[in-house]
Design a protein that fits this description.
This is Biopolymer transport protein ExbD/TolR. It is a single-pass membrane protein; Single-pass type II membrane protein. It is found in: Cell membrane. Belongs to the ExbD/TolR family. By secondary structure, this protein is α/β, with parallel strands linked by helices. It has a domain of 103 residues: Nucleotidyltransferase, domain 5 (2-Layer Sandwich), CATH 3.30.420. Helix content is 33%, strand content 14%. The termini are far apart.
């Protein structure tokens, strides 16, 4: 019987070792999942957040400001009422109507009468515990209906 000698081919011994061809890393990273998550987070925060932050804040306390004469101003007092609704009253302490639409008309009449009587500006005087949204609502009433009015002052009573 002939036996096969165990010989190693010289060519195989000198050949470099070859690695298996695995997955090569791409030159660019795929950022599609990151963009998807970013948009999902953005949509979540837009839907979950309250879009009108002025309704929840409190009126800041006054540090210092200009001295404005109440004699030269149409004064509107804003006091805290039931829940978040505010009570509006004139400088003589008579109250405006509670219904918002009728209240707007009454405030417009009052400010127009005061301006016709020689007042030069409007002063909105709010209590410290009135929400910023209520002060803004009164300011909007005056600003929308009196575009020629030069100055509207907002004052805050100290605590």
């Amino acid at each position: 019987m002939a036996s096969v000698p165990d010989t190693i081919d010289d060519d195989e011994e000198d050949a470099p070792m070859q690695m298996s061809k695995g997955k090569r890393p791409d030159e660019e990273m795929d950022i599609t999942p990151m963009i998807d998550i970013t948009f999902l987070l953005l949509i979540f925060f837009v839907v979950a957040s309250k879009m009108d932050p002025t309704q929840t804040g409190r009126t800041p306390t006054a540090d210092a400001g200009l001295a404005v004469s109440a004699k030269d101003s149409a004064v509107i007092f804003v006091e805290r009422g039931s829940e978040d609704a505010a009570i509006l009253s004139r400088s003589d302490k008579s109250k405006f109507i509670d219904d918002e639409d009728a209240q707007t008309l009454e405030v417009i009449e009052y400010v127009q009468k005061e301006l016709d009587d020689g007042k030069q500006q409007v002063m909105i005087l709010g209590d410290y515990d009135v929400s910023v949204g209520e002060i803004g609502r009164v300011r909007k009433m005056v600003g929308d209906n009196f575009p020629d009015l030069d100055t509207t002052y907002i004052a805050v009573k100290e605590e």
